[in-house]
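Quick entry between incubations.
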Amino acid sequence: MTVTAKEILAGDVRAAARLMRDLDDEIPAAVRVLKSLYRHTGRAYILGVTGAPGSGKSTLVNRITSLLRKRGKTVGIVAIDPTSPYTGGAILGDRIRMQQHALDEGVFIRSLATRGHLGGLSRSTLDIVNVMDAMGKDVILIETVGVGQDEVEIVKVAHTNIVVVVPGLGDDIQAIKAGILEIADIFVVNKADREGADKTRREIETMISMGEYGEGEWKPPVLPTVAATDTGTAELLVEVERHREYAFREPHIARYRREKARVELLEILKTRLIEKAVSDLESHGLLEPLLADLARKRKDPYSISEKVVDHSFALRLLGGRDNPPKKKRY
Amino acid sequence: MATAKGKGSAAATKRAARKVRILVGKPGLDGHDRGAKIIARALRDAGVEVIYTGLHQTPEMIVNTAAQEDVDGIGLSILSGAHNYLFPKVMELLREKKMGDVVLFGGGIIPDDDIPKLLKKGVDRVFTPGTRIQEIVEYVNARIQPRK
Ligand SMILES: Nc1nc2c(ncn2[C@@H]2O[C@H](COP(=O)(O)OP(=O)(O)OP(=O)(O)O)[C@@H](O)[C@H]2O)c(=O)[nH]1
Ligand SMILES: [Mg+2]
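Done. Structure below.
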């Protein structure tokens, strides 16, 4: 069964789910569909939710989804959990907190495993967000695990980034200092029913106040929530809405679109270039001998990479002949 | 760039990295998901991507989730005694959605007499209490392949 762009644009759930699988599994034919979908993307509002394991992200995403549905918005959710580095398997458990939406046709939830990709997202996340976007989802929520500089990837993908912290974790604050401050458009202190919520909130506010914000520049608000009991979530949505308006105003939206385009292109290019280089080397029977040379320290990987890049790509890009490197040259 | 285009698709013929995806859930009204969690972990350790939905799932929720997640198999733990309703209902909904190729298996407290009836309705395998986890993992490995 091949999936068509038409089915996706019509919002066909089965077709979309299969296309997402094919993209996640790197099936080449799936990319063809994405090519024709691409111009239909860019309409959805993308909201990132990140934070430490167990901080309540899924519970929060569930609440936000309910509020958005009440306003008649359709919602796509991409929930990412880590792949076990030892077995390659994963338990994708974010849905547990979201099953109240399982029968709602206005909500499409997709669980993804990181599959070894760093930065909190799976390699396929952007593609899958694009499919949801093309399906016509008004809002796409992306839940990613982690706190720290690793998470910067999400920043370029989402219009608005929510960072979830919980009270009483000194380490959390350390992580915030280590760079998450630049990521957050909105801070949520979830589990505010626990002791120390006020203290955590004040600490984050102090950190924010030390930053320099220009006239009219967005300053991240800090909001206490108890996602478990749906407390503070309506207030959170007010701030989300406020940031959405800010993010869609010029010059912010133009900058976002350019940055997202850059991430998209560079990510795809990176993958393609590596695939091409490796397949070039393999098809000339060069890869294994080179690795053997490297292992014996008879060559270095820096020089080899330079040569591969020069020979594999430069000539072709400049319109030169397809000039496969001779075995001896390496 | 006409040649580059052709080259691109040639490079793209690299092997696909399909992974098995299995939904593990617990329908019915009782509140024990220990068994389901143990199976989820064992399958994860066998390299499977397990979509774990938790407790109190209706057949409709299970099948909707299976559709959105594009799973190859569904494993259900049923302790409530409602297996004669739940399994056939899930199977029926799968067929309705043209998802009859999804492998449905399960376990729990299910009397031996009921098993042939469930198999006839399209359930692929029913495990009885006391089954070793390894046996379930071996079954999944042998029986469930990622779809084409
Ligand atoms: N006390 C309290 N518990 C909460 C609150 N919000 C969520 N929880 C609980 O915290 C636990 C984890 O919640 P999740 O929503 O699964 O957290 P998560 O950040 O998505 O977790 P991972 O995806 O595993 O990283 C669950 O047991 C929730 O019921 C809250 O505001 N207060
Ligand atoms: Mg979660």
